[in-house]
Design brief:
This protein is of the alpha/beta class. Helices cover 49% and strands 14% of the residues.
């Protein structure tokens, strides 16, 4: 396959003509040239197909039954721009061709159709479309390189740029998103960011539920609704969050808090897109995008039997890991300024910034509470400040921030979890070596299934030597 055909595979063409011979002849030419080609026998058929699947180029006869090719051109330019249109005109009607050009046609050809002429015009359009794509990609790269903030989040570090880029890629899809990270890292901000970057959902409801804060009965009722008399206290029918979030986004924080029975119900929503209210047998359609979050290692919960493996794979279609603040310390100064502005305004103060000493001290601190802890510290400092610059003596309980990072890191390295994980990693590697890195044999020798072994290898960054 030559490079030209490979390039053409990136573009789609629709041939619109009521004459089967011309329609099918052009279709075959474009298929041979590598384009993703389709056909329509009328303007009405073409518009119906366009609504379902946009195309890059349309070639249409001007003389069509009912709606003319000129009317089709106007509809395309009004509702399906930037699709390019080439018109075919008969009888050498230059006046009609000029009218088409005035209405936005890229070019025109006259019958009888010359294969070389049509290929030449299509080639010009392809070059134009490639330039547009390259310019768009370049603009996106430049914009991403310079992003200091995005969708309400602050940070220009590489790890945050990675988060921004994933949001860019997945926002307009229907994929279920799993957001992981320590408490206070901003998982809720990511969920809101995904929602707001989705053009078809951003004006619809964004519904957030802290699953760990509710009992199983209350959580089930909140999610799916209930019927009058379904349980004690159910005095009337109630709409659930899945119903309210129709067309929008439902964000399930602390998904690890789901009981086994609720996990089954959520799995049904993800697999079949349906649910029932508590105490009801009427099946209802779930039409909300689902985003879930946790600060737990779900693979560990799966291994223990506390979280369904099939549900884990359903929610883990796209994973976004929020980095802890200690791994993005270059973002701290920007976050400090951001929170100063917020709390200075809400407390009717005129604080312009923070002292070098405060910034240096905060950058050396390990932030176990992450951004939430930083925000609380700045809020308290703003309230206590008398001048227009935040100082360390304004920070409530400021002494804790003077602990050195090395001590915090040293303490972390001696944690029970770190101490107990190393022998497990060493044992897995030893068994893999004994089994010549055959995962099936190694899993059997370890007394676990292949999936558990794979998750352990991923967790400990054990590279497959096979």
């Amino acid at each position: 396959m030559n490079q030209k055909i490979r390039d053409n595979q990136n573009f789609s063409i629709m041939v619109v003509d009521d004459e089967p011979l011309i329609r099918e002849s052009l279709y075959e030419i474009f298929k041979i040239e590598g384009f993703r080609a389709s056909m329509a026998a009328s303007a009405e058929d073409a518009l119906e197909k366009l609504d379902k699947s946009p195309v890059d180029i349309i070639i249409t006869d001007l003389m069509l039954p009912k709606m003319s090719g000129l009317e089709l051109l106007r509809e395309v330019k009004t509702h399906h721009d930037p699709t390019e249109v080439i018109v075919i005109t008969g009888f050498g009607s230059i006046e009609t061709a000029v009218e088409a050009m005035k209405n936005g046609a890229f070019d025109y050809i006259t019958k009888p159709i010359n294969d070389s002429e049509i290929k030449l015009i299509i080639g010009k359009i392809v070059e134009k479309l490639k330039l547009v794509q390259e310019n768009t990609q370049l603009k996106n790269l430049i914009a991403k390189d310079k992003r200091q903030s995005f969708a309400g989040m602050i940070g220009s570090s590489e790890k945050m740029q990675s988060v921004y880029n994933i949001i860019d890629s997945v926002a307009s899809t229907n994929a279920t998103i799993l957001i992981t990270g320590e408490s206070g890292t901003g998982k809720g901000m990511v969920a809101k960011g995904i929602h707001m970057c989705d053009e078809k959902r951003k004006n619809k409801p964004f519904v957030e539920i802290s699953c760990g804060a509710l009992s199983e009965t209350l959580l089930e009722s909140e999610l799916f609704g209930h019927m009058k008399g379904a349980f004690t206290g159910a005095i009337k029918d109630k709409e659930g969050r899945f119903e309210y979030a129709k067309g929008g986004t439902i964000f399930l924080d602390e998904i690890d808090a789901f009981s086994p029975s609720l996990q089954v119900k959520l799995l049904k929503v993800l697999q079949d897109g349906v649910f029932e209210r508590v105490g009801d047998n009427v099946t209802r359609k779930a039409e909300a995008r689902i985003i879930v979050a946790t600060n737990q290692q779900l693979t560990d919960l799966v291994e223990k039997g506390d979280f369904r493996e099939d549900l884990y794979y359903r929610i883990n279609v796209i994973a976004i890991e929020m980095p802890p603040l200690r791994e993005r310390k270059n973002d701290i100064q920007g976050l400090i300024q951001h929170f100063i502005q917020i709390y200075s305004e809400s407390n009717n103060k005129n604080i312009r910034g923070a002292s070098d000493d405060l910034i240096k001290t905060f950058k050396s601190y390990n932030w176990p509470g992450n951004i939430r802890e930083l925000e609380n510290a700045i809020e308290g400092a703003v309230i206590m400040a008398k001048g227009d610059t935040l100082e360390m003596n304004n920070v409530p309980n400021g002494a804790k921030f003077t602990k050195t990072e090395s001590k915090s890191v040293q303490a972390e390295s001696k944690s029970l979890k770190k101490v107990t994980e190393q022998p497990e990693k060493d044992h897995i590697i030893a068994v893999l070596n004994e089994c010549n890195w055959n995962r099936n044999k190694a899993a059997a020798a370890l007394g676990v299934n292949r999936t558990t072994l794979y998750n352990k290898m991923k967790k400990y960054n054990i590279l497959d030597n096979n």
